[in-house]
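Justification of computing resources. Each target in the renewal requires a structure prediction run like the one illustrated here; the chain below, 534 residues long, is used simply to show the kind of job we budget for.
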Amino acid sequence: MDLVRTIVTSLCVSLAQQETPEPGAQEPPVQEKPPQKLTLEKVLEDMLRGLQDRPEEEGTVLERARRLEEKIQEIEKRPDREKWKEDLEHAKKQLEELRGTGWWGLGMTLVPLPRFRTERRDHVDPALPQTSGDTLTQFRWGAWLETILNQSVRMQLLIEQTRTWEANHGFLRQQDRTDLHRAKLDFRFYDYDLPLELSVGRMRFEIGEERMVGDDSWSNYDRSFDGARFFHREWLGEPLKSAYLDIEPSWGRPVTVEPGQTDDRDMNASDPDVNLYAFSTTLNLLDGTLLGLYFLKDDDLETIHVGERGVGGRRIESLGLRLKHDILPMFEVKGEGVWQWGSFAEDDHRAWAVHGAVRLHAIGTEPLMGVDLFGRGITFEVNFASGDRDPADGNHGTFLPPYPSSHALHGLADLVGWRNMQEYAVRWEIGLDGLIGINHEEDSGQSVLSVEIGFHRFFLAEERDGYYGPRGELIRRVPAGDVSRELGEEVDVALDLAGVISIGYARFQAGEFLSESGGGEDGDLFYFNFGYGF
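Resulting structure tokens:
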């Protein structure tokens, strides 16, 4: 929806700028300045520039506020600012709402949202090592309705339908025919001098970088929750000029399709025996430093899990810490650590995981022939999640992220999850904005058009535990532990245009664990994805 609005606005701005002189410039006689032609190149350039400058979506709150202030100042200086009155009021409204939760929009909006993905896998399926290849074509569409009932109440509805063709693997064929993915009411209490927002109904839950809780839109169904969420932003000084603290408690029941099934029911229901309780708080400082703390309580009283002492449900609590900080202007560090405790079936559960990354990026360098080699940066990454050291001691040590995002956290092929694993990776993102006429004046860490090259090396943390996929599914296990811990290596290349169009290729080289535990071959994955709004 925001993408459509951005493109339309960019086209209107392009047309208006061709008829309006720059501030302070004298308008030449008509006969000396023939009207400019609206070329396809000009339209494409303005569209892409509009995608790059979406202050309501990209960057931190303080960065968005700065861009909005610059936009307001630019409009107010124009001699024809009356023509831009609507844009000016829009920007001022956005700036005001950033003091709390963000802009809500105006009136009613109904937008169709398509998404299409096709992928080809050759030998990249450790669950079925004898499968030579598989092709999947997925089409998902959605109808989005947003209604602003008044300045304090908003309603959002999103209905999705998914179709999948040509997949040989039952898990890949999994689809959710029709799903009421989002149906919620948002209540704001700003009129009572309380910067608090309450959301009730069906919605997405996202925490941090979604390693613990996030969406699963890359699969053939899309995860959501029935529940409630509060949001409060506390400014530690002057609003929009100081550090701020975000506080977000929530509760929800997941609405999902069980793996390997095709759900023909309409409007799926959540499971009353499965509950997620979450509390997260994030401190955002003026220099871009982020410090986050969260607590999760994951209760699954119905699903039968097989433990070492018997079968039963799952009651797991997680305490996580997140950090992002620029040690030097060109040296950024990020990290996340989680400690878990509770019970898994009849076993005592104790587990932990850590994520660490260092990004090296250049500042103030000129692109070479339109290619920004180091402005976006090179990232070195380490991931670890504990495994069960002894499958017969009655203690469960496998780290369990409850509802992780499933795509590209550990490579494009989506072969490894954050359970009983070690990963060493490097990612190099190259900005290509200069090739399409967009120039960044400062380092933002983002590009409209970019290519990313990645290398990943995977190991098991404990050889007596299993190999788990991105959604936590157990793929293979050798309890005796007399196998190698080496899972394999992966090389990725991905081209991305504003998050709307992406093309990717992954080459996976199987490690000794796969060959020693039942077979595994080197494989390839290619995908093309188009879509927005989900």
